[in-house]
Design brief:
The chain has 189 residues and is mostly helical. The chain contains six helices and no strands. It has two domains: 102 residues, no CATH class; 59 residues, no CATH class. The two termini are 21 Å apart. The model has no long low-confidence stretch (mean pLDDT 89).
Length: 189
C-alpha cells in the first residue's frame, strides 16, 4: 500500500518536490550572502559556544547519520540497476544514479536542514519563543501558536520526526543484522 502511494506521489508530484527543494536551496544561499546572513543567533552580543569545525562535525553527523552509511553504496547501485527512467545496467543509468545520489545527499538536503534550523533558532533565541516547530509560524498565526493550532503543528512535526527516525534506525538494524549474519551466522530476520 505504501509503495503504491509513494509511486503515485513520485509520478504525479515529483516535479513539485524537486522544484521546492531547489527553491529552498536558493533561499538558503540568499540568506548566506544577504544582510540576513549577518544576524547573530541569540542577540548582537552573543558569542558562539562551538567552533565552526565543531558545528560542521555535529551537523554532518546528525544530518547524515546511519542513512549515509547504508545508502552510500546501496543507493547508487539501486538507481544503476533500476533507474527512475531508461534501461538499467547501462552507462546512462550510471550517470542517472550518480545524479540522484548527489541530489539526495548533496547541498539540496542541507538547504532544507538550514532553513528549518535557522527559523527554529531565530524564533527561539532571538524572539524568546519555545524551541518547537510552532514558533516558526508565529509571523503568520501570532499568539495562536500557544493554543490548539500550535499543539496540532507540534504533534504533526513529532509524528513526522518519529517516522524519519524509525526509518534510520530500521536501516541501521538491517545493516547490523547483515554483519552479524556474515560474521557469526545470526539469522537475518
Amino acid at each position: 500500500m505504501f509503495h503504491d502511494i509513494q509511486s503515485v506521489i513520485a509520478s504525479k508530484a515529483g516535479w513539485f518536490y524537486i522544484l521546492t527543494v531547489n527553491i529552498i536551496l536558493g533561499f538558503s544561499i540568499y540568506l548566506i550572502f544577504s544582510k540576513y546572513g549577518k544576524i547573530c543567533i541569540g542577540g548582537k552580543d552573543e558569542k558562539p559556544e562551538f567552533t565552526y569545525f565543531s558545528w560542521f562535525s555535529m551537523l554532518f553527523s546528525a544530518g547524515m547519520g546511519i542513512g549515509l552509511v547504508f545508502y552510500a553504496v546501496a543507493e547508487p547501485i539501486s538507481h544503476y540497476l533500476v533507474p527512475p527512467y531508461g534501461d538499467g545496467n547501462s552507462i546512462e543509468s550510471a550517470k542517472v544514479a550518480m545524479q540522484f545520489t548527489f541530489f539526495h545527499w548533496g547541498l539540496h538536503a542541507w538547504g532544507i536542514y538550514a532553513v528549518l534550523a535557522l527559523a527554529l533558532a531565530f524564533f527561539s533565541f532571538n524572539r524568546g519563543l519555545p524551541l518547537t516547530i510552532r514558533s516558526i509560524f508565529y509571523p503568520i498565526l501570532g499568539e495562536k501558536i500557544h493554543g490548539y493550532i500550535g499543539n496540532v503543528i507540534d504533534i504533526i512535526a513529532t509524528v513526522a520526526t518519529l517516522f524519519g527516525l524509525t526509518t534510520s534506525l530500521g536501516l541501521g538494524v538491517k545493516q547490523i543484522n547483515a554483519g552479524l549474519n556474515h560474521l557469526f551466522g545470526v539469522p537475518e530476520n
